[in-house]
TrEMBL record:
Residue stretches of each PPR repeat: 20-54, 55-90, 91-125, 126-160, 161-195, 196-226, 232-266, 267-301
Protein name, per record: Pentatricopeptide repeat-containing protein
Residue ranges crossing the lipid bilayer per the database entry: none
UniProt keywords, alphabetically: Repeat
Family assignment from sequence similarity: Belongs to the PPR family. P subfamily.
Domain of life of the source: Eukaryota
């Protein structure tokens, strides 16, 4: 893709055809997505020398390229330089990467400041921007701030999407506030959106971790039977782990059998979860039998495997 774009660009110039801003943007975007920051910056500088003025899309591509390469401060420097020049009108595509980069760097206060400043430049936060910030606060364990942003989003008339609800369910379950997670999971369904396998996994795991396994199983069955969503390995591994932790090893074994029945290949985490369940339930012989199955099946044990295996006296 990138090589083809480069070839076309060079061919264009060699025939005396002057590339326009859209052509430059196309190649800049390809460089940004490929992580080729040096090439991107070289081309960005070349534009001005060829009297092809960069537009908002150009600047957004360059800022996004900086963020993708971990150079958030350079992206911010460019943003503030452009703003101070007075000719630049930022869009949601300007703010998305900047807020995301700051959030992922743990600089949530700065991300929120940038978010709050959007309206000063006539840019209204959209669903994607809210999702980035809610996710940032959620991943940092700041569930109250995430919920507050969600309520503000709804009040501002921005309709939450599946990503919004999934992020909220995830962060609430992560801090043990599973009832609130369930509330938003139900609200998601009532709003006419369809939860996907990721969203179901989050709430099933949240319920499982707090030993609300009947409810977890209900949602597992709802997902399969009522919604027609195929559980993935994460779904099964989560149930096996949480059943095992609760001492319900027979149920964990049934879920493992289900994995085989549907033709999914287990992974090291599947076996580790089973071994852990049997070890905790005082069934060392079962734990070692699973270990043998794992090794003979060609799966490589990891440190977690050996940590879960009971001691042999």
């Amino acid at each position: 893709m990138i090589e083809t774009a480069q070839e076309l660009f060079l061919e264009m110039k060699s025939t005396g055809c002057i590339p326009d801003v859209a052509t430059y943007n196309f190649l800049l975007d390809a460089y940004g997505k490929s992580g080729k920051l040096d090439e991107l910056l070289e081309l960005y500088k070349e534009m001005s020398s060829h009297e092809c003025l960069p537009n908002t899309i150009t600047h957004n591509i360059v800022m996004s390229g900086f963020v993708k390469s971990g150079s958030v401060d350079e992206a911010l420097d460019l943003y503030y330089d452009l703003i101070s020049d007075g000719d630049f009108t930022p869009t949601a595509c300007t703010y998305g990467p900047l807020i995301d980069g700051l959030s992922k760097s743990g600089r949530l206060y700065e991300a929120k400041q940038l978010f709050e400043g959007m309206l000063d430049y006539g840019c209204r936060p959209n669903c994607a921007i809210y999702n980035i910030l809610i996710n940032g606060f959620g991943k940092a364990g700041e569930a109250d701030a995430a919920c507050k942003l969600f309520k503000r989003m709804v009040k501002e008339g921005v309709r939450p999407d599946l990503k919004t609800y999934s992020v909220l369910v995830d962060c609430l379950c992560m801090v043990g506030r599973v009832d609130e997670g369930l509330h938003y999971f139900r609200e998601l369904k009532e709003s006419g959106l369809d939860p996907d396998v990721v969203c179901y996994n989050l709430i099933i795991n949240g319920l499982g971790k707090t030993q609300r396994l009947e409810e977890a199983l209900e949602l597992y069955n709802e997902m399969k039977n009522s919604r027609g969503i195929t559980p993935d390995l994460y779904t099964y591994n989560s149930l096996i782990l949480n059943f095992g932790m609760a001492g319900m090893v027979e149920e964990a074994g049934k879920i493992y059998n289900e994995i085989q029945r549907v033709g999914l290949e287990p992974n090291v985490f599947t076996f580790n979860a089973l071994i852990r369940g049997y070890s905790l339930s005082g069934k060392p012989e079962h734990a070692y039998a699973v270990y043998q199955t794992m090794v003979t099946g060609g799966f490589s044990p990891n440190t977690g495997t050996y940590e879960q295996l009971p001691n042999r006296d």
